[in-house]
């Protein structure tokens, strides 16, 4: 097992311990005495992922195409980490943008998560163009956006305010795309023929969309705007770190151009 996989597993186990401990009541971000220790531990978990992404980029430095993909994924991860820091709500402020949504600080993190995941999607679309015609991808994207819109209308609280409603809607469209890319990736390789590492990458992309669906449905708009907190946060943290622990491996696993499309994926999973 490579050091890159080991680091991802350590990060994921840290997230599991953190979240389960919170759900069992051993510590809580709602407790003023323990919340900053939790944030510190979670920041270290995120730093593990950043270090892993950097090491993967260094590992792929001899391949220009894979290295560029690795750098893109690294930048995307840094954007997401900045979004996570916003979501920590270090100032402990609630109802900052009105009296409807308690955890409205989550909306500000979209300024970081939005570009972060868009970078990932752009990178993945370059890879998917090896397997699909552009018009096919366009139809799939439109279908994904329509489903995201339908899902959003069933979740949003209309009295939340223009800023919250518009930003959340934009992000609901963006975050639907990683899951789409994951499904398309599996279809491209064939469900029965795809190597296990392709399945894992696809799972990580789907989990990214699920993690933010949890935020929208249960943390941001849930419980009539008060949020099911901190339970939604704990569950989201496990799913989110699981997805990021996998996504950092995209440059190691997926070929960027046709000349590298014959790479032995099983070997890459171990290397």
Note the main attributes of this structure.
271 residues; mainly alpha; 71% helix; 0% strand; disordered C terminus
Question: How does this model look, in words?
Answer:
This protein has 271 residues and is mainly alpha-helical. The chain contains eleven helices and no strands. The chain has helices at 3-23, 35-59, 64-87, 105-108, 110-128, 134-153, 162-189, 196-220, 231-247, 250-253, 265-270. Helix 2 runs antiparallel to helix 3. The longest helix has 28 residues, at 162-189. The radius of gyration is 19 Å and the shape is globular. The N and C termini lie close together (8 Å). Residues 260-271 have low confidence and may be disordered.
Poorly predicted residue ranges:
260-271
Percent range for β-strand residues: under 5%
How many beta-strand runs?
Answer: 0
Q: What letter string, H or E per element, gives the SSE order?
A: HHHHHHHHHHH
* Rg, nearest Å: 19 Å
Work out the helicity level.
over 70%
- End-to-end Cα distance: 8 Å
Give the overall average pLDDT. Answer: 94
Shape: globular
How many H/I helical runs? 11
Query: Largest sheet, if any?
Result: none
Classification by helices and strands: mainly alpha
Transmembrane segments: 7-29, 35-57, 69-90, 110-129, 136-157, 163-189, 196-221
Keywords: Membrane, Transmembrane, Transmembrane helix
Protein name: YhhN-like protein
